Amino acid sequence: WISTSGGRWSLAPCTATWKKHNYESAAEAIQAVRDNKLHAFIWDSAVLEFEASQKCDLVTTGGLFFRSGFGIGMRKDSPWKQNVSLAILSSHENGFMEDLDKTWVRYQECDSRSNAPATLTFENMAGVFMLVAGGIAAGIFLIFIEIAYKRHKDAR
């Protein structure tokens, strides 16, 4: 129980939901998404992009929550620290890391398809523009009726 300014809330509904959607591994959660038992799954973007490229019924959407890199742990006084740091930086600068990403993470087994959301075109929005144009026309028509009524009333 959580006590809040005079009222008490139970964590039981939240706990039940958490337990229902708790999976032992990312592979189980991804399979649950594929089986429509789970609507979405938040995990490491590289893993999800790889899974979506291999399983055509999956798609990644939205942007990254935050971007973080991986590091290599070494002793503070390691003689290799400078050389490893420079090698990693060089790999990023010369495109080697991007090539690895394209080869292993973004390799497409599926037909080429876009993960980007569909954009709205004029054809998609034509109904909205027609509705606005109709509203403007109705407004102009009502203004003329109001002017005519006012003139008729003043003429009396």
Automatic annotation (TrEMBL):
Domain Ionotropic glutamate receptor C-terminal residue range list: 2-107
Record-annotated membrane-spanning stretches: 125-149
UniProt KW keywords: Glycoprotein, Ion channel, Ion transport, Ligand-gated ion channel, Membrane, Receptor, Transmembrane, Transmembrane helix, Transport
Record's bilayer topology term: Multi-pass membrane protein
InterPro entries: Ionotropic_Glu_rcpt, Iontro_rcpt_C
SMART domains: PBPe
Superkingdom of origin organism: Eukaryota
Gene3D superfamilies in alphabetical order: Periplasmic binding protein-like II (3.40.190.10)
SUPFAM superfamilies listed in its UniProt record: Periplasmic binding protein-like II
Any GO MF annotation of the entry: ligand-gated monoatomic ion channel activity
GO cellular component entries: membrane
Record carries keyword Chloroplast: no
Localization, UniProt: Membrane
Keyword NADP: no
Main location: membrane
The protein's name: N-methyl-D-aspartate receptor NR1 subunit
Species of provenance: Oreochromis niloticus
Organism lineage: Eukaryota, Metazoa, Chordata, Craniata, Vertebrata
